Every structure is written in structure tokens, then in C-alpha cells.
UniProtKB/TrEMBL annotation:
Domain Protein kinase, residue spans: 42-321
Protein name: Serine/threonine protein kinase
Listed PROSITE patterns: PROTEIN_KINASE_DOM
GO MF term list: ATP binding; protein serine/threonine kinase activity
Gene3D superfamilies, alphabetized: Transferase(Phosphotransferase) domain 1 (1.10.510.10)
Amino acid sequence: MKQVCLLCERTSFDNNLYCQEVYCQAEKSPTILGYGKWLGDIEIVRPVVVLRSSVLYEASHQKERVFLKVAHVGSENTERLKREAEFLKTVRVSNERNTFLPNWRPPYANATVSAQTEAYGRAMLGEHLFYYYLSDFFAGESLRDALTKNPQMWVNHIGWLVMRLASSVALLQSKGVLHFGITPDSLLVHFEDNPSVPTVYLLDLGIASTPQNINNDWYSFMVPPAYTSPEIMQPHLQKPSYATDVYGLGLILYEMLVGVPAYPFKLKSDEEVYQAVLKNHRINMNRTADVRAIAELAVRMVDTQVANRPQNAAQVVQELLKLFGEVPTAKKSRWPSLNTILIIVISLLTVAFLITFFVTLNQLNII
């Protein structure tokens, strides 16, 4: 097990993490499970993404490859994960699955997909009780990692990716659910080959609350300040709404266009970043010369005035459709899948072995 600081990202493998930055309480960082560790009957393969409220693992459950989402210790984190799991279970049970959202799975062996099944599981590890839920595995990498490799993607990839992300957020909004925590770490991306099209997986549903309950459910540490909207910081001036998630979508679009976060945050305290957001000290938009229309949309989406933005995620999808058209569908390969090829090869090798065995046995009997 190791500790990973949620602010400065320092890591310790001996559970003795210390940070020299005065704003960073590294000693309070969560413990991250490593390969081969067990949480109940679930075996950890690797951590995929570490968020401020939880960690997403690739894991093995009942010999199946799955995602395991574990809340960090603390009542706010566990309650947030419970809300997320309950929502995803409701979507799964009602057969309203969105391919860009986690496909919820029962948390315990032999449990079935039903309204009566618990949405989340519990397991003791050391002296702590951890809350978790399971979902289908998705082969991809975090958008943060993808942007590290390629800070400025092809503009069509940017448009299609944000369109699919906005479609997922639109589903949440159609159910009256607010996210309020969209970051490059909260989604995974995968690029199909034929044609080259991005697929997204929204691995985290943010605060996963409703407009009526947001005052009780919101807590600031869940979202990095660089991805927190001005109206959340100062709700007495402007009321947070569905347009708040448009701001989050806009920050993703903005960052992919300029190649860096709109509000730089590395080695800065939360308070420094909060002030930069409130004063609108963001990186200048430098793409108006080559992709003016999409750049202007990004600027509108991150406007500090709520009324100047598109008012919901569905409107964002419609604007992106006008600019990029429908996302192309991946063509099915003429070749069989890798698993099918492996099965065929193993079958042929087995047949060859049996033929050789019986021929050899027959020759020995003749002798």
C-alpha cells in the first residue's frame, strides 16, 4: 500500500508521507491499494485514477475484470459514493444504460441486478470500513494522461469527445442530477481505429446531487479549485444550476484547445487558485485564428456570468452537432477479435497435439 497526496501528488510507499509546502497536509493523504491486495473478495489489479473523493481500480471479481470505485475515508466521501452508486443502479435496473456512463454491477457475489440489491458494498481493511461499488471494465486512459501525451488533439477529436461527454452530462441533467465536478481526471478516453473516433467513459458523477439537496451535499474539497465555477464559490451572487456543468464542460473544451488548464494549479495552494478563478485570470484563448467557431464556444461556456453560457448540456450537444456533425460510428473489422483468434489457435494446437499423441502411441503398439 502507498499514500498519494491529493494536492501535490507526492507518493510514499511506507505510509510516512510528508510535504514541505505549508498548504499541503500530506500526512492526511489516503492509502492506495496496490497489486494483489484484497478488499473482501475483490482482488486489486492496479489503481487507474485517484480523485479527491475516491479512487478507481482495475480489479478482479469472481474471475471477471471489473472496475472498483472506493471512497476515501470520511463521511462526505462515503455519502457521495453512495449517491453515485444508487443513481447508477437505478439506471441499470431501468435499462436506461448510457454507454458513456459506468454500467453498475452488484457489489457482492451471487447478487442479482434488481431494485432490492444494495447499490454499494462495504469491506473492512485494517481499522477502516471502506465503501465501494463495482462496474463493468472500460479499456481506456484518463483524459489527463491522454493530454499529457498529446496536449492539443485534432480538433475533430476534441469536438467529438466533448460532444459525447456532454451527452452523458445531459442524461444526468434529464434525471435532475447535478455533477459540479467535471475534470480531465473524471473521464477515461479510448480511440477506435476505423475510423479514429474517441469514446468516453465518465467514471465519476461529481457531487451526484439534486438542486434541492445541493446545499447539504456540496463540499469544496471534492473538486479541484481550477475546475470549480465562480457561482459555486460565491452562491450569494449567482445561483448554481445546470449551466454550472456547462462551465465544467467548457473548461475541458478550453483545456484541449489551448493545451494547458485554463487555470494553472500545479504547486499552488487551493486559495491561490480560487482567487485566480474569481478574478478570471485564465490562460488566453489562442485558437481563434484557426478554429474560431469552436474557440468562441469554449469562451462562452466558461463565461463567469451564468446567463451568458448555454444553459444546459443538451444545448452544448446541439451547438457541437452544428460544428462537427454526428460522431462517426466505428466500422466492424473483417478480422475476428483477438479472443477469437486465440481460441482458434489454442484449438488447432490441441488438435495437433492429440494427433501427434495418438500417432506416437500407435507406433509404439506396432513396435
